[in-house]
Structures are given as structure tokens and as C-alpha cells.
Amino acid sequence: MRTAAVVLMLTALVAPAHWWPPRDPMPEFPRVMLWAWERPEKLDFIDPREAGVAFLARTVYLRGGTVTVRPRLQPLVVAPGTAMMAVVRIESQPDAAHIGEPAPRIAVEHAILDATELHGMRALQIDFDARASEREFYRAVLLDLRRVLPASMPLSITALASWCGYDGWISGIPVTEAVPMLFRMGAESYRAGSDFRVGACRTSVGISTDEPRREIPRGRRIYIFHPRSWSASELRAALREVKRWQ
Length: 246
Prior knowledge:
By secondary structure, this protein is α/β, with parallel strands linked by helices. It has one domain (2-245): TIM Barrel, CATH 3.20.20. It contains 4 helices and 11 strands, in the order H-E-E-E-E-E-E-H-E-H-E-E-E-E-H. The chain has helices spanning 2-11, 102-115, 135-148, 232-245; strands at residues 32-36, 41-43, 51-63, 66-71, 76-78, 84-92, 121-127, 155-159, 177-180, 204-208, 221-225. Strands 1, 3, 4, 6, 7, 8, 9, 10 and 11 form a 9-stranded mixed sheet that branches. A two-stranded parallel ribbon has the order 2-5. The chain starts with a helix and ends with a helix.
């Protein structure tokens, strides 16, 4: 039944729009990336030529001027040779004080950079649903990270669809890619069949196996979220459908 559900939801995606992206900014990575969130994941059945893994490495909490870090607690097993991307989630309080001060920003940056020291990491992705009041803080974090990361390490961010369209506040930030989140609340401002105004948003998209999304621009790297631990049969079903319209 689970496999059937994956096929049912992803089949709704097979009517692609006819926009093609610019050059792939991460040619060394597979065209499909699996998000592995905070749950046990045994992904030793994947073919590294077909899919990589973007896994939640840690969550950084910003509460007022205090920064705390929760490392990944659940096991993750991958096949040898799998392209690995460390994902750092940032969560903050709506009324977080001191967010514009240097000390909290530096603490957040150090917590993020620590994730790049994990064995086998080849890229870094930041997941932060920054509020309007937090955008300057987030911009400064990304600028600092890009300055200190090796030039060979891709810096990816997730993005609400609105950030890639009419809002566009992330334009000009030196990230390798911004992944439009076309599921959950992130897809509210996306018009099916359209493309994104911000260039960094035109090379990848993020989808979920339990939500249909029609007319996604073609030729993008696909990040796939699954609401439970992946099985080999569910992955095969998802890959079959993605290949039909990628």
C-alpha cells in the first residue's frame, strides 16, 4: 500500500512545464537527492549513480541571544560512494531578541560549519524559514559562510516559493542553489506551470511523496521528502515517476 501511495502522488507530477534551467551548478551530484530527516534511515540499497542523500545533520535553535544545537540522534546508513549533503535546520522564536547582534550570528555560523566536518560531507544545505525581520540576519550568515567555506563546497539553501518569485529577497546572495519547496506551506505562492524569477531557484525543486504537484519546470535536480523512513520499493517507485518528467 505504501508503494502505491508514492506512485499515486508522484504520478500527478507528470505534466511538466516547458522551461529549462541554466547550467547545472553541481554537476558532481546526482539529479535526485533524498532528504533524510530525523528518523532512522537505512539507505544502503540506493544506487549512488541515481540518488544522493541530503540528511538532517543538526538543528540550531536561536532563542533570544542564546544559541543551542541538537545533533542528529537517529541512525543513518548509506551505500558506499553516496553523495552526501549535510543539512542544518535553523529554528528561532518569533520575538527573538538580539538577532541582529554579532555574537548570536557568529555562534550560529560556528554551529553550521561544524556540520561540514562530518565524514564524507560534500555539500552544505541550510533550512531556515526566515521571517521578514530575520532576513538581514540570514543574509549576513550566508555571506559569512560563503566567505569561509572552500570554494569547491556547494552552499545550498531551501526557499519558500515566494522567495523565488514576487518577493525575491534572496537575489544576489552567493549560494550555489536555492531549492524552492513545492510542498507543505512553501508551495502556497507557486503557480503551476510557471518558472521562478530568481536565477538560483531555477536548477532544483523540492517535492514530497505525499503531495501532488503539477507542472513543475523540467530539467531540475529533484529533492524528495518522504514522511517516513524510505524503503527500497518506495524509492524505486519514486525514481520511476521522477524520471518520466525530470
